[in-house]
Design brief:
363 residues; alpha+beta; Rossmann fold; OB fold (Dihydrolipoamide Acetyltransferase, E2P); 6-stranded mixed beta sheet; 5-stranded antiparallel beta sheet; 20 strands; elongated; binds adenosine-5'-triphosphate; ATP-binding; nucleotide-binding; P-loop_NTPase
Amino acid sequence: MSTLSLEQVTKQFGAFYAAREISFTAEEGEFVTLLGPSGCGKTTLLKMIGGFHQPDSGRILINGQSVNNLPPEKRNTAMCFQSYALFPHLNVAHNICFGLKQKRLPVAEQQLRLAEVLKQVGLQDQHLKMPVQLSGGQQQRVALARAMVTRPDVVLFDEPLSNLDAKLRESVRFEIKELQRQYQLTSIYVTHDQAEALTMSDKIVVLNAGNVEQIGPPEEIYYRPANRFVADFIGAANIDIAHITPAEQPGFYRVRCQLGEFYVRSPRPPLAEHCYICWRPEDARFVPQPQTGDNHFFLTLRKMAFMGNLTEAWGDNDDGKLSVRLQLIKKPQAESGARVCFRLPEDAIHFLEPVAEGHDEMA
Ligand SMILES: Nc1ncnc2c1ncn2[C@@H]1O[C@H](COP(=O)(O)OP(=O)(O)OP(=O)(O)O)[C@@H](O)[C@H]1O
């Protein structure tokens, strides 16, 4: 078991920053996901950890030792790519042992490790098959076995599921996570798929244009996004501008925004009186008997879409300047064009970054 730390790691391609002063740690056996949109620098970071790119500045440490000057083969990291990265002309056993052969490990040791890892990934009976004779999920397990067999300090996953269809992705996601947990593999996992990141990770590093936006466990990232980018990128969010003042009770705040007045409980105080706020579409409750007062608001319904387990709805506030998205468990008895009442629970509103001066859309 090993730890991995990045300290202020920067990588430029010409004048362009692919990674700018990135710092995070993966503790022993931790599953850390690098999540962000295309081009945000995920693969560049993974390649620097693996030794395929050299950082311009900053340090990469494995078990507390800098590996900046070590070539890839001396780093004891293992890459796990999409399933198609298996060698098509080699059977399962030869695919798995490829790295061990290159390291010139004695054949007896190779056989021992092969048997062990085949058992770990549940492919004991498949070792003579060629990759084309395996299902997508089995191919993915071979790719993982090939990484695990070298007993790496850190496993680096580069979008390993992007080649699989939606259903298989889900089951293989759980298989990888289970193996990672069982064998306490310190793992760095690159994806732009938020569902993958939320279900698999111990910790998520949210990246945007080469910068870290937030680092935290999945629940914190989802329920306490640090800023508009994170709130919007992970899940759906309604974002508004608000004036926030402390209420009498500690930990409670009065929030005035375009939707109305809200009484909010937040473990995190706002960073300024004038901040962006967000709330999740699933947090609003339909109120059949309209009420006024704190935490109630009115929308003119614009559109509703019945999705089976929930109904998606879109509506505008009274002055028509704010459009809001809702996910309701029960379809409201109302038609498009109706003015209907909703309520937000006290803990639904989250405080984001301060609004820049002169940018007051509420005025
Ligand atoms: N060798 C290179 N030379 C110049 N620019 C590069 C090079 N490699 C990457 N980049 C640029 O750096 C940025 C980050 O690339 P990177 O591959 O790390 O993104 P990513 O987040 O992994 O994206 P994706 O999800 O699309 O794979 C991109 O704008 C890319 O064009």
